[in-house]
Amino acid sequence: xxxxxxxxxxxxxxxxxxxxxxxxxxxxxxxxxxxxxxxxxxxxxxxxxxxxxxxxxxxxxxxxxxxxxxxxxxxxxxxxxxxxxxxxxxxxxxxxxxxxxxxxxxxxxxxxxxxxxxxxxxxxxxxxxxxxxxxxxx
Length: 138
Ligand SMILES: [Zn+2]
Known about the structure:
The protein has 1 helix and 8 strands; from the N terminus they run H-E-E-E-E-E-E-E-E.
């Protein structure tokens, strides 16, 4: 285990529980139907407190990305020039993530991504990363 492991509390636990099942779930507001990410106790759109954890399709497109050539913190110094990205899900939610299995020159804004459920970064946690949907790894 290296770096800074995730902090789990009662609000965010369903996110981590879903990832451990290799699923993605997000809160959705029962009052205004907005998706809510990151996990919160209330809806940032309408202030409603009736949020329901809802499974979502984790197929995404690449919204933006950069290569972190200098670690932003000692906690991430073990990562070798990670591709930090924003992935946009079909429901419009944009997630900060890391792109795996791709060289920067292979990436383009709008390309299709698929989820990677990574269980190697921190013992007992599954992290959500993404990789290009094509081509398949050899
Ligand atoms: Zn709402």
